[in-house]
Each structure stands twice: as structure tokens, then as C-alpha cells.
Amino acid sequence: MLAAAKQEGYDLILCGDGSGDLYAQQVGLLLGELLQVPCINGVSKILEVADGVVRVERELDDEVEELELSLPAVLAVSADINEPQIPSMKAILAAGKKPVNKLAYADLALEEIPQLVELVSITAPEQKARKQIIIEGDDDGQVAEFVGHIGNVLN
Amino acid sequence: MSKLANVWVFSSEAARLPEVMAAGLQLGNSVSVFVLGGADEVARAAALGANKVYHLGEKDSSRIVEDYALTMAKAIEAEAQQSLVLLPASRRGKALAAKLGVRLSAGVFNDAAELTVDGEGHVGAKHLVYGGLAIGEEKITSQIAVVTLAAGAFKELPAEEAGRSADTITLEFVAPANGIRCLARRPKEKSNVDLGKAKRVIGVGNGIGSLDNLKLLEQLADNVGAELGCSRPIAETEKWMERERYIGVSGVMIKPDVYVAVGISGQIQHMVGVNDSQTIIAVNKDKNAPIFQYADYGIVGDINKIVPALLNSFKG
To answer: Which of A132, B166, B221, B303 could form a disulfide with B226 if both were Cys (CB 3.0 to 4.6 A apart)?
Structure first.
């Protein structure tokens, strides 16, 4: 992405918060840092793009920041930035006609990528053994039996 | 477990400093703490066990925390030894981690739930991947490792001993080349809930059906001394509860003595957040709901009937 952005040019690069699989939450930020342009994460609203700047809101645990970044810039937006629209059939068909610029490794002036982190393992988490006392039905007797069981833990 | 000669610690959120310090003290023979704030904050870092305090100066409202990345990187570089930089896994922490990572040619790891140091001084870290379905373990092989720490990963917090002192070094601010201007900031309405610390939690899902049932469950929670939590749709789609109460892999992870799931189907993304509960109790109308596979006690039936009955049985 770094090589492609440098080669193709850009004003604004929008990234998500993190991928659904490994959720490292680093790609957008690292890309911005490597491009040496302003970059920030947690963008919950894009207020305006004008006069060579982008104004955004960034939602943090304790406060909301309103930031201005000069363009070009890289933003990592949070999942709640909008309600994604479901594309119409017309839009889906139109999408097929839009040009796609495919970049191969050979097309890009790739620098050597340093290996800083090694994957050791991916394992399933251990499940706790549960008592599995399940009562099927909600008549008075069954509810009373359930209350009898949970009374010990909740009282 | 081996230890590193020195670990760097920074937390822009005062409340998270003790746990990041706990990790630093466990993994390093000495701990250097970056402090952004006044004399009280410097003293607090020392009281928590810092060997050295690197003072970034008083808070400056025109800067964002990430603007200090270069200042920190310069101090870390000057020590030029194998080390670890620890930050809390907040959005600020993650942004800082990336900026430090690039500047220091360091491997970055976010949301670490477990940390170790091997015989060669390499940091090993674990976090959840695939939406909580699996645990990923990585080894950071760079000279410097930058790690953001998941909340609750280190539970034995260091005691604050007033009167302890640390060498204090005042750092000169190195302005970032790509300054981001902070135009305004407004505090978010502070949520006063901390589900992560609650002993008992009642989790509410779409299956409760109505706001009336939510009121009854609020009452029940009150009667049994529990906090209310919820599944993602309740917080994000229905907006019946604040986001701070949403339990799951991208929300709060809880470890209560008792977790009661009412009208929650038990999707993995939610269950990951409650798996460490001592006892899990489930109420759901669908006997095939996955929640029952994870439950110690469960009842299959009509929420509208069971919730009032529970309220009647647990009067507080």
C-alpha cells in the first residue's frame, strides 16, 4: 500500500479500524507514518474536506477531539462512523463497469519489508467445564426448581 | 521468566497507569515512566514504583497525546538497549504505538492479554483473534517491542507508596513534522459503570423483547447487587443501553462471580466476553440457543413469565 500510494498519488486514504480476522489495528496508522503524512485512528465523523485540510471528530474513551489534518492524510475510521447502505441491483451492475486498476508486485517499487514480529501459534481457547443443568419449561414448578438452583449463587 | 533490563511505561489515562506499571514491574528490572502532567502525576509514578520518570511537561490543550511520540522516541533511542514500551490498549495508546513503532523500527502488538520475556529478551504476547474464536501468540523479534495492554491483563496492582522517589528527567518537546491541529475537545458524558469490576452481572439481549422487561431486570439487578450489561444489538441498534455496558469481544470483557444472560442467544462474539465468569446462568425461549452450551444453570421458557417470577423470588 505504501508503494502503491507513493506511485499512484493520493489526497486521502481511508482505512477501517482493524481487520475482522487478526484485528491488529495497525495497517492504517503504520501506512500513514511510513508515508510521513498526518494520520490518526478512531475517526467517528468526517466533518469537512476543504482547502487542503480534513476536519474530523475522533471519539476516545473520555472525550471527543475535533482535529484538523492537512492533506494528504490517512484516517482510520471507527465501526460506528455510518450505517452502511446495501447497494441496489443497479449499483451492483454499474460497479462491474467501473475500471479496476490491478497492481502486481512487479509494478511497484517495493522496499524490503523488515520482519519485526513472528507468529508463534493460533490456538483455540480453553472452555471452562459447565454444570449444564438446564430446565426445559416455564411452569411454576419448573421456575421454582430453577430458582432453587440459582438461589445458592445469587443470594 | 526472564526480565528485561528496562521497560518504558506511559498511560495518558491516569486510571490505567497502575496496571501498565504492574506489567512493567513484572517484566523489567527497572521501569521508566513517561509522565504528562504536573508534580502530582510525577509523584504518583514514583509512588507506583517507577525507577525513572521522564517528564513530558504539563498538559497542553493545543496538543494531542500522540504529538509526544517523537519526544518519547528520542528518549527511548538514547538508551539504545533491548527494551519494551508498554501502553494501555486505548485508541490513544494504539495510535502512539504505531507512531513509536515506525520511529523505533519496533514490532507492535495490540490488546495483549498475556506477556512474557524469553531467554533472549524477546517479548512474547497473546491476544484474541478471529473475533474471539482463537488466541494468537506472537514473538516480537525487534530490538525494541511496543505493546498495548488489554484492560485487566495484570490484576495484581502495585501499591502506591507515597514518599518513594524516582530520578526525574525533564524532556524537551520535539514537535512532530506532521502536526495534527486540535481545534476543540469536549468531555464525553462519563459513564459511571465499570462492568469489568462487577461481581455480578445481568446481561440483556434482544430476546427480552420490551423496555418493560428491561425495567424489571434493572430492578432485579438492584435486588441481587448486580450491574446490567447487554449484547451488541441492545447498545448499538436498539440503543437501550450505553455502549459502556456492551459485553463482547469488541466491547467490555467481564469476569464476574455470576453472569446471568437473559434473552441472549450466545453468539461467540458475546461469549468471549463472559467466558471467564465463575457461574453462568441463562434464560432463553429457544432451547437450541448456543448460550445453553455455556451455562451452568439454564431455563428454557417465556421471558415475560420468568423475569417477573425471578423478581418475585429475589426481593433483595
So the answer is: B221
